[in-house]
């Protein structure tokens, strides 16, 4: 783990440079109103960074969510994530709900660019896979459905 | 250059010999002022204030630039195929360029109209005209894509187009060349007066943007040049400049320049609508194409229509009136109030300004000097508000600011002349480098001009840029008009030859700019919505590959079982759902070039498998660190070699037991 730290720091610094906004406010012609506010750094409790703060999981699994989650998986995720533990482009999904908090998973899906720039765990995965996980334009509701499908894939009932 | 009568050069020489203009430009050095650079400077990472939607002339495209920086953002292919994104090459886009004459890969695009509501920019669509094979196109300003093209029957060349009414009820398209129309078109050219007719098409635009020809006015054989709709009090009327009212059919530079005055044609289109409702129109057989892009299937289709409705204004009174206008008028521009109509006689030494209210009174009083082929000609003085004296040489086009001023381009004397509409007084002149054609004030043709700048679009740039052989860049020049005097602040090169352009505030387009095509909404019949949906299917001698692309692999990337002579269709769905992540697709030897696929989109490349072998394909748009690995192979076998259809990605086979061995 210690060995990774300098690399992670380097990645974080590179990401920070990429995010830097132009400081020059002198131009009278350019308009400023379209700039996106910088996402503030969040304290990480293993929940990742993004709008998902708290997820309630129910048992038994919500079957309608699983069906929807599977359909989204097939359309938007399956090209890179297998359902076993085999890494292709991204990691296989087997065991992901045991490795990660549900909030982390949903933030990773819905806020991937910020996660890859700021979340240490996400950055470790980037270092491993070397392909940035794309933003697949998944809504928060859809990411919850995917999570339910992942739970089923991990053997929950 | 191309649209202008060479005669103006002759006139220039003659007039220059007799007239001395004190403000005539003497050289480039005098025009620039000290703070120019800071006014056009948009710092890295900052946005421009305006989008400038600029016609590309003979390249058949539209260029999208930022103002004030002059930076080029995008080229939108409209009437020309475009190697950059496969427009006119992909199976989905080919029908857009279909016409009654078949596939036309290149046309001449002159003018832009941005849609308006209540006479003000609404940011929905841009319209553009195809000059040579007469067509009107609609571009969606959410996607900056050509979404519809309508051909115009009975037209010899669609120059006087695509001007729009106040609420985008109609787009007009009127013929530059009168031609024989109807059943008998095999007539002697010398029978022009008898057999040649002009047409003015009124294209109805519905709320979703779809276009259809509501009616065509059949007019005497003249040339229509440009047009503008009335607005405010003159809403319901349309004004067209005409030339060649001499009805010449040879050596027009001399023979169409005989009369002191040609006409501005005033059309009461609300009256025409009434006649149409009363069933006074005549249905005429004519073939023309109507091409539409379906944004949910990502496919365009082309339909050949067979009929068009025509109205004859010589029979149906009170639709059309002619107003004499000196001399071969080019621009015909209506000021923001809707009261003043400016005719720019390109061979005239003055600019006449007509009054809409005087025109109405003249019509009511029947103040006519006669008729032209059965259509009343209003007395010049009865419609005239006044004349701008000695404005410059070769007035072409006029745009307006919000303060009652007009800006007229002077082709021959290479300058922009600012004048006050009500006072008819010249206020300022600014040289252009060189030979200005059109010009643009942001919002200039609307009821509420945004002002701030005037942009000149020049025909000649000799000595302004580093030379690039015989063909030099075309250019635009940006002037600050916020003060009393116009100040040149920037030169910037343009693609193609810019004719008309409009500029619209960034905030009207930017927030609704589309980022991706949602996979959930993709209804393309050959889409593979997810890697599990990929497949290869044979239908006779067609092979359909349902392929997906995502960073950084294509699925399937090993394809076998294609036979020599097959037509292979690669239907590539880009599974990305992030902004600005297109993938490309190319396969060796494709006669039909390449395609580019936007996130969530499906596009198809047809490939003739005309020889045996293994052919690489790959992604042509740098997409990720492993872009170079985004590739695959297609195997083509001899017809007698019995290889089954087979496809995969990521499957490693035993080298010896490979298929077909």
From TrEMBL, chain A:
Keywords of this entry: Heme, Iron, Metal-binding, Signal
Signal peptide as annotated in the record: 1-18
GO terms of molecular function: electron transfer activity; heme binding; metal ion binding
Keyword Signal: yes
UniProt domain Cytochrome c: residue ranges: 64-154
Keyword Metal-binding listed: yes
InterPro entries per the UniProt record, alphabetical: Cyt_c-like_dom, Cyt_c-like_dom_sf
Pfam families in UniProt: Cytochrom_C
Record region (Disordered): 20-42
Descriptive protein name: Cytochrome c
Annotated organism of origin: Pseudochryseolinea flava
TrEMBL record, chain B:
Domain of life: Bacteria
Annotated Gene3D superfamilies: Cupredoxins - blue copper proteins, YVTN repeat-like/Quinoprotein amine dehydrogenase
Keyword Membrane: no
Chief place where the protein resides: other
GO cellular component terms, semicolon-separated: cell envelope
TM ranges: none
Enzyme class name: oxidoreductase
Compartment(s): Cell envelope
Designated name of the protein: Sec-dependent nitrous-oxide reductase
């Amino acid at each position: 783990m210690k060995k990774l730290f300098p690399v992670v720091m380097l990645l974080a610094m590179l990401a920070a440079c990429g995010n830097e906004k132009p400081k020059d406010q002198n131009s009278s012609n350019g308009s400023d109103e379209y700039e996106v506010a910088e996402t503030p750094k969040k304290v990480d409790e293993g929940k990742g960074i993004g709008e998902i703060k708290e997820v309630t999981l129910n048992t038994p699994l919500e079957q309608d969510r699983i069906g929807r989650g599977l359909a989204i998986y097939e359309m938007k995720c399956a090209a890179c994530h297998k359902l076993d533990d085999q890494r292709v482009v991204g990691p296989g999904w087997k065991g992901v709900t045991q490795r990660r908090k549900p909030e982390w998973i949903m933030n990773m899906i819905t806020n991937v660019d910020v996660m890859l720039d700021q979340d240490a765990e996400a950055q470790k995965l980037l270092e491993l896979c070397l392909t940035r996980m794309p933003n697949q334009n998944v809504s928060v509701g859809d990411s919850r459905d995917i999570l339910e499908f992942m739970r089923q894939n991990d053997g929950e009932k | 250059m191309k649209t202008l009568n060479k005669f103006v050069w002759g006139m220039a020489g003659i007039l220059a010999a007799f007239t001395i203009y004190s403000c005539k430009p003497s050289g480039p050095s005098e025009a620039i002022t000290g703070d120019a650079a800071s006014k056009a400077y948009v710092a890295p990472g900052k946005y421009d204030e305006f989008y400038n939607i600029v016609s590309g002339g003979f390249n058949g495209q539209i260029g999208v630039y930022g103002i004030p920086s002059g930076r080029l953002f995008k080229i939108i292919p409209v009437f020309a195929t475009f190697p950059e994104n496969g427009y006119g090459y992909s199976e989905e886009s080919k029908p857009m360029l279909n016409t009654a004459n078949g596939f036309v890969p290149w046309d001449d695009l002159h003018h832009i109209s941005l849609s308006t509501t209540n006479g003000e920019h609404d940011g929905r669509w841009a319209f553009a005209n195809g000059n040579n094979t007469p067509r009107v196109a609609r571009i969606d300003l959410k996607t900056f894509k050509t979404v519809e093209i309508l051909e115009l029957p009975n037209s010899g060349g669609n120059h006087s187009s695509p001007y729009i009414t106040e609420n985008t009820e109609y787009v007009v398209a009127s013929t530059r060349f009168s031609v024989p129309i109807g059943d008998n078109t095999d007539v002697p050219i010398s029978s022009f007066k008898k057999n040649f007719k002009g047409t003015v098409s009124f294209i109805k635009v519905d709320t979703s943007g779809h276009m259809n020809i509501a009616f065509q006015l059949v007019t005497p054989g003249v040339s229509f040049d440009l047009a503008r709709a009335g607005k405010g009090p003159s809403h319901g009327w349309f004004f067209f400049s005409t030339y060649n009212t001499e009805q010449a059919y040879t050596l027009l530079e001399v023979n169409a320049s005989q009369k002191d005055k040609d006409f501005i044609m005033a059309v009461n289109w609300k009256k025409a609508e009434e006649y149409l409702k009363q069933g006074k129109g005549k249905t005429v057989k004519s073939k023309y194409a109507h091409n539409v892009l379906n944004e949910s299937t990502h496919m365009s289709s082309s339909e050949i229509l067979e009929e068009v409705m025509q109205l004859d204004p010589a029979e149906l009174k009170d639709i059309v009136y002619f107003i004499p206008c000196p001399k071969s008028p080019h621009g015909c521009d209506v000021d923001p109030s809707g009261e003043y109509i400016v005719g720019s006689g390109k061979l005239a030494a003055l600019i006449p300004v007509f009054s809409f209210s005087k025109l109405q009174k003249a019509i009511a009083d029947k103040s006519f000097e006669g008729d032209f082929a059965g259509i009343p000609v209003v007395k010049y003085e009865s419609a005239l508000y006044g004349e701008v004296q000695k404005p410059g040489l070769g007035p072409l086009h006029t745009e307006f600011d919000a303060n009652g001023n007009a800006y007229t381009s002077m082709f021959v004397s290479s300058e922009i002349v600012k004048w006050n509409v009500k006072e008819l007084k010249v206020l300022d002149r600014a040289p252009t480098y060189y030979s200005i054609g059109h010009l643009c004030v942001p919002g200039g043709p609307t009821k509420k001009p945004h002002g701030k700048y005037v942009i000149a679009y020049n025909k000649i740039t000799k000595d302004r840029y580093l030379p690039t052989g015989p063909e030099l860049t075309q250019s635009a020049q940006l002037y600050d008009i916020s003060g009393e005097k116009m100040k040149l602040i920037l030169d910037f090169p343009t693609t193609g030859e810019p004719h008309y352009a409009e500029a619209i505030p960034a905030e009207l387009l930017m927030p609704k700019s589309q980022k991706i095509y949602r996979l959930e909404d993709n209804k393309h019949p050959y889409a593979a919505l997810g890697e599990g949906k990929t497949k290869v299917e044979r239908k006779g001698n067609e092979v359909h590959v349902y392929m997906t692309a995502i960073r950084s692999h294509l699925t399937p990337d090993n394809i076998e079982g294609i036979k020599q002579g097959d037509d292979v269709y690669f239907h590539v769905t880009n599974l990305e759902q992030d902004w600005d992540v297109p993938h490309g697709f190319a396969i060796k030897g494709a006669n039909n070039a390449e395609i580019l696929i936007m996130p969530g989109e499906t596009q198809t490349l047809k490939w003739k498998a005309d020889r045996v072998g293994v052919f690489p394909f790959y992604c042509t748009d740098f997409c990720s660190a492993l872009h170079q690995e985004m590739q695959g192979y297609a195997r083509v076998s001899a017809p007698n070699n019995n290889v089954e259809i087979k496809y995969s990605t990521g499957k490693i086979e035993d080298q010896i037991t490979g298929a077909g061995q």
